[in-house]
Design brief:
By secondary structure, the protein is mostly helical. It has 20 helices and two strands. It is globular and about 70 Å long.
């Protein structure tokens, strides 16, 4: 094989070699004696982020492995964001995982190895240009997450959550694989560009294509955590260790967004009228179910799980607004870039909220009930302010970045002429603001129940502070990130 053909995949190749190195190193250097695997993992993530940024800055679209792997600006942007999100997760998780004995035993570095394997699966999904390659990346990510959820072997809730996630995840993977097999039967190829050609010229059987599309969208909905395939989300979020919940709920959303673009827009764009209807139903049900059910939750991890369902519904609004009758030339670019902006900002906002949950947790105490946040302003005014900024962003209130993200998506929906859909989203956003503002009220106006001092790891404190401030700063000046999203999407649509 020509060595030049491997250059587009150099980030993934480096990550594979680094994972093998960390796996071997963890056998000889136990984490309880020093953060060797942790430090190596952060170095690896920094190098992967640098490589992704370099390719993003160059701006070329290149392929490898017989056109099965593509490195374009969208892929490089999402890989960069996934690397940063994973690194932030590891920083937030350092003290939490150590206190719960997740870094001890024969393979003391397995948490970091599995986290990096999860990232590798995401990268393969993001750059996949072939149905089978994307599915392999999806399974690599999913299997690593199944193991991570069950990492606390002596913890009943984690084991139960892992079994639920594994069984429902296997079912969703089966749906997706069955859908892919039907699309292969109809088109005779697994290459996304060839599938796009076969569906556009009418040579493929339309009935088989639509049936395959239904199964494919069902699998995608599970990975995104959107209704009506959301049943696993609250149980797994609550039962998994919070550090694993963050690995599960942050960066994988970027990979799920990528395969939505690859499958639906690049591969099955000719069937847009069919998948738009499915996405519309999922978006409406997700926004309604997520916001209404979250109000009744007293566990903050379950509340944030239902929040995730509603937030993913909002992202679907951007994805379904790309094509419509009488659309101007830049309509698809605007819609998909708003969905991309929403996905990126949601991931980094949810990183911060779960970071605060881990900040307040200590050995034998999870800080996962809403009452645990009473009087947080009295205990630590700065991190109460950080949590407030993050919650206001999730609620979509100005000047936080969540407001601009929701506004850009709503503008894309308005452009389609579906005014009812935009009004529906606004109404349920107002309903959803209640459960976010409830936590702000508990932090600032209730008397603290938990009087224990908050132990703040220096690196975690600095990262969490930067995370909270970024939500505010990007909300005030969103143009740079939005321009990057627009550029990435326009390059994908032009290719």
């Amino acid at each position: 094989m020509n060595a030049l053909n491997l250059i587009p995949a150099i980030t993934e190749i480096f990550l594979v070699l680094a994972i093998m190195l960390i796996l071997v190193v963890s056998l000889f250097f136990k984490e309880e004696n020093g953060p060797v695997s942790y430090t190596l993992s952060l170095i690896v993530l920094a190098v992967c982020a640098a490589l992704s940024y370099y390719h993003l800055d160059v701006g070329l679209t290149t392929t490898a492995f017989g056109n099965m792997f593509v490195a374009d600006p969208l892929a490089n942007l999402l890989k960069l964001a996934a690397c940063i999100a994973t690194a932030i997760t590891l920083i937030y998780s350092r003290l939490y995982t150590s206190d719960r004995g997740m870094l001890s035993g024969f393979l003391s570095g397995e948490f970091y190895v599995l986290a990096l394997l999860t990232l590798l699966g995401q990268m393969i999904m993001i750059s996949g240009n072939n149905f089978l390659i994307i599915y392999l990346g999806l399974e690599m990510m999913s299997l690593s997450l199944y193991a991570l959820v069950a990492l606390r072997r002596d913890h009943v809730a984690s084991t139960e959550a892992s079994m639920k996630y594994f069984i429902l995840g296997a079912l969703a993977s089966g749906f997706m694989l069955y859908g892919i097999s039907m699309l292969y039967g109809a088109t005779g190829t697994l290459d996304l560009s060839r599938v796009a050609t076969a569906t556009a010229d009418g040579s493929a059987n339309k009935i088989i294509l639509v049936f395959g599309l239904v199964f494919l969208v069902a699998g995608l909905a599970f990975k995104l955590g959107t209704a009506p395939f959301h049943m696993w989300v609250p149980d797994v979020y609550q039962g998994a260790p919070t550090s694993v919940t963050l690995l599960l709920g942050a960066a994988p959303k970027l990979a799920a967004f990528a395969i939505c673009i690859r499958f639906l827009v690049e591969g099955l764009g000719a069937l847009v009228a069919d998948w738009q209807q499915m996405l519309t139903v999922m978006a409406v049900v997700s926004i309604a179910v997520g916001n209404i059910t979250a109000i009744a939750q007293t566990n903050i991890k379950r509340m944030l799980a239902y929040s995730t369902i509603s937030q993913m519904g909002f992202m679907l609004l951007g994805l379904l607004s790309g094509y419509y009758a009488g659309a101007p030339a830049d309509a698809a670019t605007n819609a998909y870039s708003s969905a991309l902006f929403y996905a990126l900002t949601y991931v980094f906002t949810t990183l911060g909220t779960f970071g605060v949950v881990m900040l307040l947790a200590r050995q034998g105490f999870e800080a996962d009930n809403l009452d645990d946040y009473k009087g947080l302003n009295q205990r630590n005014p700065w991190f109460a302010a950080v949590m407030m900024m993050l919650l206001l962003s999730l609620a979509g209130l100005p000047p936080m970045v969540g407001f601009y993200a929701k506004l850009s998506v709503l503008q894309a929906v308005f452009a389609t002429g579906q005014i009812w859909l935009a009004l529906f989203a606004v109404l349920f956003s107002l309903i959803g603001a209640y459960y976010y503002l409830r936590i702000v009220k508990l932090m600032y106006f209730d008397e603290a129940i938990d009087k224990h001092p908050i132990v703040i790891n220096r690196s975690m404190g600095i990262t969490l502070s930067a995370n909270g401030l970024a939500v505010l700063v990007v909300g005030i000046w969103p143009s740079a990130l939005m321009a990057l999203c627009t550029y990435s999407i326009s390059r994908v649509l032009a290719s």
